[in-house]
């Protein structure tokens, strides 16, 4: 089939998210100017550059108490920092518990019973037992077409890796099975990997 998004797809559910898969999940922790911690997952997330290392995530909806965006973007606007926490398969329920639309004064760490630790290079909390955490300094927020579409870019200023995930000098994703977002309500976990050699290597 073929469809133009502007005309609609005619299916029971939007297939767009099921087409662009799997997508890594950025479990974004932020802290507002008043010191309130926030934690929320975003599946429009990825790394975008090596030197300096940079990441992005996109927020595509809003809350009535946040002036056209969500808590994560609003907090980053106030403080200029955020932390990306990598989601392990074992943390799927905790991650899902933080995905709800809560009032701005709700601390998702406490709400979902998630241990937090202070970041090292920025004033923000991180998920203590995540397999990795990327501490980030905001570089820019770009507004995309659409009512509440914002892309947040950040430079990674500090990286935590859980010791049990570093094997023979490699960060071994099979040790924690990263969670990926598919379409609809579906997720996947990476349980095995394979290698390919590029031409000329």
Explain what the structure shows.
Helix content is 12%, strand content 35%. The mean pLDDT is 96. With 201 residues, it is mostly beta strands. The protein has a single domain, classed as Pnp Oxidase, Chain A. The N and C termini lie far apart (40 Å). The protein is globular. A hairpin with a 4-residue loop joins strand 4 and strand 5. The strands form four sheets. Strands 3-2-6-9-10-5-4 form a seven-stranded antiparallel beta sheet, covered by helices on one side. It has a three-stranded antiparallel beta sheet with strand order 1-13-14, with no helix packed on it. The chain has four helices and 14 strands.
Overall form: globular
Widest sheet: strand order?
3-2-6-9-10-5-4
Our estimate of the beta-strand percent is 35-45%
Number of helices: 4
In helices, the fraction of residues equals 10-25%
- The separation of the N and C termini measures 40 Å
| Mean pLDDT over the residues | 96
For CATH, the homologous superfamily is named as Electron Transport, Fmn-binding Protein, Chain A
Spans with pLDDT under 50 lasting ≥5 residues?
A: none
Sheet of most strands: 7 strands, antiparallel
Structural domain tally? 1
Give the strand tally: 14
CATH fold group = Pnp Oxidase, Chain A
Radius of gyration: 17 Å
Q: What is the second-level CATH architecture?
A: Roll
Which structural category do the helix and sheet elements fall into? mainly beta
Provide the succession of SSEs: HEEEEEHEHHEEEEEEEE
Task: Quickly name the level 1 CATH class.
Answer: Mainly Beta
């Amino acid at each position: 089939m073929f469809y133009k998004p502007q005309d609609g797809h005619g299916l029971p559910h939007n297939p767009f998210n099921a087409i662009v898969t799997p997508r890594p999940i950025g479990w974004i922790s932020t802290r507002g100017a008043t010191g309130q911690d926030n934690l929320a997952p975003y599946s429009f997330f990825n790394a975008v550059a090596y030197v300096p290392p940079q990441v992005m995530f996109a927020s595509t909806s809003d809350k009535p108490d946040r002036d056209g965006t969500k808590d994560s973007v609003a907090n980053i606007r106030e403080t200029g920092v955020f932390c990306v926490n990598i989601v392990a398969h074992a943390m799927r329920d905790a991650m899902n518990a933080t995905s709800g639309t809560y009032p701005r004064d709700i601390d998702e760490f406490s709400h979902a019973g998630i241990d937090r630790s202070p970041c090292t290079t920025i004033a923000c909390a991180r998920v203590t037992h995540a397999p990795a955490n990327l501490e980030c300094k905001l570089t820019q927020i770009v507004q995309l077409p659409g009512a509440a579409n914002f892309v947040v870019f950040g430079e990674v200023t500090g990286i935590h890796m859980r010791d049990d995930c570093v094997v023979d000098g490699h960060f071994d994703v099979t040790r924690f099975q990263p969670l990926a977002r598919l379409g609809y309500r579906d997720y996947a976990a990476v349980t095995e990997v394979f290698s390919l050699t590029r031409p000329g290597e």
